[in-house]
Amino acid sequence: MRFEGTQDYVATDDLKVAVNAAVLLRRPLLVKGEPGTGKTVLAQEIAKALNAPLIEWNVKSTTKAHQGLYEYDAVARLRDGQLGDPRVHEISNYIRKGKLWEAFSSPKLPVLLIDEIDKADIEFPNDLLQELDRMAFHVYETGETIAAQERPVVVITSNNEKELPDAFLRRCFFHYIKFPDRETMQAIVDVHFPGIQKILVSKAMDIFYDIREVPGLKKKPSTSELLDWLKLLLNEDMPLDVLQNSDPTKAIPPLHGALLKNEQDIMMFERLAFMTRRQQR
Amino acid sequence: MLLNFLDALRAAGIPASIKEHLLLLEALDRDVIERRPEEFYYLARAIYVKDEGLIDRFDQVFARVFKGVLGQEGVEAEIPEEWLRLVAEKFLTPEEMEKIKSLGDWDKIMETLKQRLEEQQGRHQGGNKWIGTGGTSPFGHGGYNPEGVRIGGESRHKRAIKVWEKREFQNLDNSRELGTRNIKVALRRLRRFAREGAADELDLDETIRGTARQGWLDIRMRPERHNAVKLLLFLDVGGSMDPYIKLCEELFSAATGEFKNMEFFYFHNCLYESVWKNNARRFAERTPTWDILHKYGHDYKVIFVGDAAMSPYEITHPGGAVEYMNPESGAVWMQRVTHTYPAAVWLNPTQRGHWDYSQSTKIMRQLMNDRMYPLTIEGIDDAMRELTRKR
What we know:
The structure holds 2 protein chains of 2 kinds. Chain A is an alpha/beta fold. Chain A contains 13 helices and 9 strands. The N and C termini of chain A lie far apart (about 60 Å). By secondary structure, chain B is of the alpha/beta class. Chain B folds into 4 domains: about 1-65; about 80-130 and about 155-170, no CATH class; about 195-225, no CATH class; about 230-390, Rossmann fold, CATH 3.40.50. Chain B has helices spanning about 1-10, 20-30, 35-50, 55-65, 80-90, 95-105, 105-125, 130-135, 145-150, 155-170, 175-185, 205-215, 245-260, 290-295, 315, 330-340, 360-365, 375-390; strands at about 195-200, 220-225, 230-235, 260-265, 275, 285-290, 300-305, 345-350, 370-375. In chain B, strands 4-3-7-8-9 form a 5-stranded parallel β-sheet, with helices on one face. In chain B, strands 1-2 form a two-stranded antiparallel ribbon. In chain B, strands 5-6 form a two-stranded antiparallel sheet. Chain B is flat and about 75 Å long. The interface of A and B includes residues 25, 30, 166, 172 and 173 of A.
């Protein structure tokens, strides 16, 4: 079974190789890249392509590694014990399964997405080393060992907010989703807006890549922003000549809120637009 | 072949291990890829490179090792980056720098440099000794000191270092991070976990233990843990600090991640009546030093980062500053700061052995009551110990 991208997802050659290698050898695939280049979507699409259920584990700064395995709810048991509930004698009643447990015990081979692993504590990836290596873990409270029948496909995304430890990296395949070039971007847009006017896309992409070129932007617009913007333009039924308008007094693209997400960026863009206007005079 | 590749990768500083190598063999064995050079390249990249900062380096090694094997045409002789940089500094005339600047773009600059080098190599074969000395001197150029460069023309040098600084940022991502990590370890010493205030957090473990022992619900609380360290960071920029900018940025980027209460300011050479926060607008947006002294309490800890290499007059005399007229001397301002903030240290990126040869460094060290430390892990360790010392 080979991953070749899907109807809704354009995969570059290097991405395909990395995904296929990870799926075949059942090693975790670590995906990095600018925000909005489709890291999370990739896992969903792999699941779709393999026809496998997707188990998503969204990591937050407070997430601990053991929460992915299981949690023992001691307080509930304590309360039940005080109330004399018979459930208290069975400890497994108070063990809540985590996402990894879910993935390991899934009847059908699942795709496990560990999203934004860099959000968590520095020790988080280290705490998962053994579990991801052996795809098994031990439950101390009940003394049982949970092992995966078949190693699940694991996709891990990172936004580079924290360094990941070497030992963790050694166990993964790595892919960096680089920002798509114009051709790939065209393909991506085609996939998302099949019937869109070619000329509109080309104009919009001119503007889009121009904005990305502006030095010093806090947050450069990325693929997802371009798609949102195109959607807005289509929704608003924006006439083509608004985009084509090279009238310097309207240097800011229409509906720019979809592309620029930071008031400082908008201010800077306005200032730059003002300066080009002055130059033209 | 593949083992050679592994060796070459390690030699190039890509942390590949036997584990990755075995994984690659396994992947090849299981026919993960179609047998095409591009697929092999992608596979090897996904296995060996775990950091986008290293991809560029990987590409070079890959091209070198598999040159000819995978039908790739000869790659241009790679000229080391530092080599080019130093050669550029040494051999480019001001007019050429001007021309390069007008080219604007790094790639073009590199191209120009390469062309020039090739020209020079031609001359060498022709028996001209000049390039021979030129070629080796950059390597033996260990004693790269700020003074020497400044004589060569400050403005040219400054302009140049900015371009390269940018390049280093992209290229040395990785080695830089390593440094940052080390520094983080040392900076963590500065965190002193103070347990203050009323009980306000449920201590679950203690509660369970207590309850089990007592037989009834026994709720235990504990004081909330919080980071009590507040930090003021003063960074010297420009002039003789240019060669150390990278080190400073490392320290700086590590520090922002580590503290909740951290303020940073820039100064040039010595602290005077105002500092600034935004280097691009250093002349427009300045913060008076008095405001800082009044705004931030005595419990802030102060770290200066600077090489303290300047003319002694810049410290001792009013009006000594290089950039403008300062009504009060730098020494007065340093005394005010150290007086307001008892916990203060100076981190100096130059080697400790060189300090005694610079009069200004000696003066500054005196002003800091000898609390000057080199910008190394050990030095930072000592500095943090000094900062957290109970007074």
